[in-house]
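Per reviewer request, we include the raw input and output of the structure prediction for the construct analysed in the revised manuscript.
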Amino acid sequence: MTTFTPPEIDYVAIAPILIVAIAALLSVLTETFLPRPVRRPVQLMLTFLSLIGAFVVVVINRDIRTTTGGGAVAIDGPALVLMGTILILSLLSAFLIAERSLDSLGDAFAPSAAALPGSVDEREFSARGYFQTEIWTLFLFAVAGMLAFVVANDLLIMFVALEVMSLPLYLMVGMARRRRLLSQEAALKYFVLGAFSSAFFIFGAGLVYGFAGSISLPEIHDALSASAGETLLIVIGMAMLLVGLLFKVGAVPFHQWTPDVYQGAPTPITAFMGATVKVAAFGAMMRLLYVAFSGIQWDWEIILWAVSILSMIIGSLIALTQSDIKRMLAFSAIAQSGFILVGVVAASPSGISAVMFYLIAYGLVTVGTLAVVSMVRDSTGEATHLSKWAGLGKKSPVLGAVMAIFMLSLAGIPLTSGFVIKFSVFAAGIAEGDTWLVIAAVVASIIAAFFYVRVIVVMFFSAPNENTASVAVPSVFTTITVAATVTATLVLGIIPQPMIDLLTNAGIFIR
C-alpha cells in the first residue's frame, strides 16, 4: 500500500495569494450575513486592505526564489514582479469600480444583475437605492486567480487558476447598469468563446501528459529532452495550450470577443480586465514556454511569429475604422498583444524584462485611459462615440491633456512610457535575430499612430458643438487613479532606468 506524503507548503511564499483568497471568502460571508446598508463599506475595506497587504508581502518576499507545494508553485523574480503588477493595477481598477459620482443613477453596475433589463424588479431595486456589492466578491476571486496563474508550475494549477480568474470576469462583464442588453450579450459571447478556449487548454494538457507522464512543467521539459526526436504529440498539445492563453490576451485569430466585450462591459471592468488579464496570461505563457517547452523553441517561435504579425497588422488596420472609442481601444489591445509577443519570441533575459516592463506600462495606460472615458458623459451615460469628443480638449483642457498623454504613450511617442517599452521589446527581438518581426512591428506602430493621434485631433482641433459631451466631476477614487496613471506614464518615459534595473535584476523563471 502506497503511503501518501503531503507536500510541504511555504505559506510565506504564497502569502499574497492567500491574503486575497481569504478576503474573497470573507467577502462571500459579508454578502451572506451583513445587512445591505453596511455591505459596501465592509467590502471596500476588505478589498483595499487585502490588495495593499498582499502587495506589501510581495515587497517583503522580493528575495524569495523557491518552489513549493510539491513543485506546483514557483516563486521567482518574474512571478513576484507580475504579482505586484497585478495587485497595483487591481487596486487602481478597484477605485474605478467604487466610483459613484459620475453617473446620476449611482455606480456603473445594475442594482440586481439577475433582474431583466427594464423589468419591474429592476425599476424597484433602483427606486430603493440598491447597489451591486457582489461585484467585490467576484473581483477578489478574479484577482486571486490571476495571482495563482503567474506562479503555477504545473498544468493542473494553471488550469484551476485560469478558471478562477475567468469565471468571475464572465459575470462582471454582464453587470452594466446602462446598455444592459449590450452588456449581457458581451458576457455571453465572452463565456461561450472562453469555454472553448478552456477546452483547448485542458485537451492540450491531456496530450502533454500523455507524452511526458507528468503535468509538472520542469518534468515536461525533462521528458522532452529525453525524447527529443518524438515531438509530434507534445507539439500538438503545446499548440492547444497556446490557444487557451492567446485567447486571454486577445491575439489574432482568437480575438473575436475583444471588441464586443470591451464595448459592452462596464467601463471599470473593461479597465480591470484589459490591464490585469494581459499581465496574468502573458506571465503564464512565458513560464509555460520557457520552463516546459524550451526544448522545442523552434516550433512555438513559428506559431508566435505568425500570431504576432497578424495581431499587430489586423488590430491596427481595423482600429483605423472604429468610431467608438472603447472598440478602438479593443483593437488597439489586440495590436498591443502582437507587440508584446515580439518580446516573448525573443526568449532571452532581456526579452523577459522587456515584456514585464511592457505589461506594467501598458496596464497603467489602459486603466488611466478608461478612467478618462468613464468621465466623458452625455444624457444617456458614457459618450463613447468619437463625434461626441469634438472640442473636448478645449472644453476641458486638463482632461484633454491627460487623454492626449495616454494616446501618445500608446502610439509610442518619446518622453512617454510607450516609447520606452516598444524600444525595449524591439531591441530584445533584434538581439535574438528576429529583425523581420521587428520591422513588421515598426510598420504596425506607424499605422497605429494614426488612430491614436486622431483622438487628439478630434479633441483639440475641432470646435465644440451641441453634441459635444460634458465631463463629469469624479470623486477622490477616480481622481487618484487618473493622477497615478498619468504620472507613472510620464515618469516611466522620462526616467525609465530604475524600473529597467529592477526588472533586469528580477532574473529568469526557475525550474
